[in-house]
Write a structure and sequence with these properties.
It is built from two helices and 28 strands. The protein has 329 residues and is mostly beta strands. The chain folds into two domains: 159 residues, Immunoglobulin-like (Sandwich); 146 residues, Glucose Permease (Domain IIA) (Distorted Sandwich). The strands form eight sheets. Strands 7, 9, 10, 11, 13, 15 and 16 form a seven-stranded antiparallel beta sheet that branches. The longest helix is centred in the C-terminal third of the chain and has 8 residues.
Length: 329
Amino acid sequence: MIFIGLRLCCCSLLIGAVLLSSLPAGSMMSESREHTIEGGNQSPSFVWPISGTTTPDLPQSSAYGPRLQAGRQFAYDYHQGLDLPTPISTTLVAVMTGTVRIAGSHPRYSDGVVQLDHGNDLYSNYLHIQASLVITGQLVGIGEPVALSGSSASGFPHLHFEIRQGGTSRAHAINPLRYLPYTDTVSHTISITDILPTNAVWVQVSAPAYELDINRVTLVVRELATNRVVDQRVLDYEERNRMYNGDPDLLDIPDLDDILIQPHRFTSSSDLYVVDVNFHDLAGVGPVEIEACAVDVHENAVCSRASGTFYQRIYLPTILVSPSSAGEL
Ligand SMILES: [Zn+2]
């Protein structure tokens, strides 16, 4: 058999510079809003696990979602909670009234853990604890002590705090800022940093270290000639955790579904949480307009637009010539 494969690649110059621009007033831009979120959908408000108040525990040394883990030479992984540095033996309190489901240890966890059941399939997890102050089945009121903090295997003293919704597995971990109270200043940003002729777009999102509430990055590709939407992508932090948590090795791959995630280093002394996202293998040919939005857990969207040019590779079909059929018509 003889295979004759033809492959054409349209390679020419990227026409037009990348234009960074924001949406006009009245669109999804929402830089100046500020409101206090009181316990997500629940009432009364949750409190934070260290202070026991509605003022966020700061600093925080890891956001929910993709990160470079300081304790492992800044290797990429996917984080199911918030890391709150605090000296060993700090008293940790119930973020909401609940029933103790796990008190100190559990086969699923390699470390000390307290898990509270708040009803409505909502759970909170206190990990790396040194000691539990409660027993299984005990009712605890909001703000009551439940554990003493410890440190992770890397020796870093902190509380790893999670909220899980809809079930108790890792796949159910959501961004705790859905429920923990804070003043949402909508201070996250997004910029389109590159549009590549290979049909890929780089965007950069950031959030201040005191407001780690980004949950979704969306991308829309329109062909400029027709204004037709030719591709749409969504990177949803919680959804990615739900989809791929059955296999943590898969979740810890930074490039899934043609979306490559590159977090910057972030520690308790960082001012900004920054993540570069590369959406690749996008559809579209010729001049395109890109709209990218960063959406926080309370659906506040901040968007940016830019235009550039795509040169999608064109593959001609493979022509198969079989000796047995070569002489037949
Ligand atoms: Zn952690």
